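For concreteness, we quote verbatim a single protein encoded this way:
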Amino acid sequence: MKLIVRDERWPIAGAFTISRGSKTEAHVVVVELQARGHQGRGECVPYPRYGETIEGVTAAIESVRPQLEAGADRTALQALLPPGAARNAIDCAFWDLEAKEAGVRAWTLAGRNRLDPVKTCYTISLGSPEKMAEDARAAASRPFLKLKIGGRDDVDCIEAVREAAPRARLIVDANEALSFHDLVRLAPDFDRLSVHLIEQPLKAGEDEALEGYVSPVALCADESLHHPDDLALCARRYACVNIKLDKTGGLTEALALKARARDLGLEIMAGCMVATSLSMAPAMLIAQGAAVVDLDGPLLLARDRKPGLVYDGSLIFPPEPELWG
């Protein structure tokens, strides 16, 4: 086995702004695993919210180089690294490599007969009501819009978007920016404006106030969910969980988490960081049958890798083998 690691920068079209800040590029880490004449690839996005950096994730990947090049497989990988971006890139590269070596598609290895196209949300960055309405108007034909919130004029922003895109289903994502008091105050207005889902309103680890609270709009956990150990608490506080491969540490754990979440009666949201199609492709397996799909990362970039996923408006088609899996 040969391991290759590199980081890449992909410019965002404009800027991507949430309650924690703004960025103008997606800085990703790519892993390649080469063995027996085949190559598998995986991509991850180190996330500062979880204490991750490009340098730290690269170092974590390099720390397991001896084991990988000595023959450690995807099963062994789960114990070599904790959940997070570093393990995700390697895990997804293993899936790609295994599929190519077996001459089948990755979803076949996961026990699926086929992969169906899915419709993704399209994200509207946090901004003034006027700017968010302008962006929503340009995307009004899309079936799902995900609005980043966390400012003083959240209701004004959603009202402006609703007027600009009256037919779109709306999801709002606070990225932990609200207090419980804020949520209780805003949720009735969100309901009035036909918001479908509120994602991560409170800070992870400080969301116990949600237990016993009956929200007029369904709540979805994002930062509060990383691995199966978090599910019991999530089931008491949320109706839905956002599964991202960069949080779970790869497709292997994400598939197990999805199954366990469904056993607990939780709805599934398939999510992503802002990244290229190489990050989205394995997440398409999580998107199958999900209540909400948010795999719009490449749509937010100024350019995507080639070959990339095929997007027809908001409809995403399964990846070709040249991309992944």
